[in-house]
Amino acid sequence: MTNVPSPVSVHGGHSGQFCCHANNSLEEIVRAYIDLGYPWVGITEHMPPASDAYLYPEEKQAGLDADALMERFAEYMTVCRSLQAKYVDRIEILVGFETEYYEGSIDLARRLIGQFSPDYVVGSVHHVQEIPFDYSPKKYREAADRCGGLDELYNAYFDQQFEMLQALKPNVVGHLDLIRIYDPGYSTRLVKPNIWGKILRNLELVRQLGLILDFNLRPLSKGEKEPYLSAPILKQAIDMGIDVVPGDDSHGVDTIGRYMPTAIEMLQAAGARTNWRRPADRS
What we know:
Blueprint: E1 9-12, H1 26-35, E2 40-46, H2 57-61, H3 66-86, E3 92-98, H4 105-116, E4 120-123, E5 127-128, E6 131-132, H5 137-147, H6 150-168, E7 172-173, H7 186-189, H8 193-209, E8 212-216, H9 218-221, H10 231-239, E9 243-247, H11 260-270
Parallel strand pairs: 1-2, 2-3, 3-4, 4-7, 7-8, 8-9
Antiparallel strand pairs: 5-6
Helix pairs in contact: 5-6, 6-8
């Protein structure tokens, strides 16, 4: 009998308790992973903003500011550590957080690492030219316009990602090709020589640093055909010997595990190793 790889998530666990655009309590999220038989899961709530300038509209509507979000983040770390201990006999919880990349974010991320000693960090980029491009199609167009077009937006994104990887050396690279989020022509744009060259450069740095790539299932929950990583990036990463591990990027119990069988099939078909490496382990 062929062994079926275990479901795991290297990037998941956003909860309504600590994220304004998610649902359910963090304990409900953890119990859902347990019920679905996950041997381990990484919980990776967002870091707080470096200043009020980077508040999202939903956070402003909730009456939150950067100081309040810092307090909420500290509570998240405390609650997540308590759940880690409470359920230690049922699941291995890795307590982490997801970074940003804009002015002041790297210094803040380093302070958070020093203060809270997370088990690991997911390095993500959600802003280009200080604009949260993944928040809405309108913000995406605004970021592209500021860069001078879609190709230039992609180039700026992958340059910022490279800088983030150099600065933080995160254990996991979150949704490497997130920049495609509102671009229906991404499949041809990603492989344009200038853009593909930057992707290859970034992947080589990932390989050199021994980082894990997040095979992020969030697009599937929105009706898209493939996760982040898109097929050519996935193939290139596997050819380079880079570890690729599923991340459900769950924002509530309803998306936990839903697309994991599809992800595992896709990774197996692409030739990825399915003895999943924990993000707290360096290769």
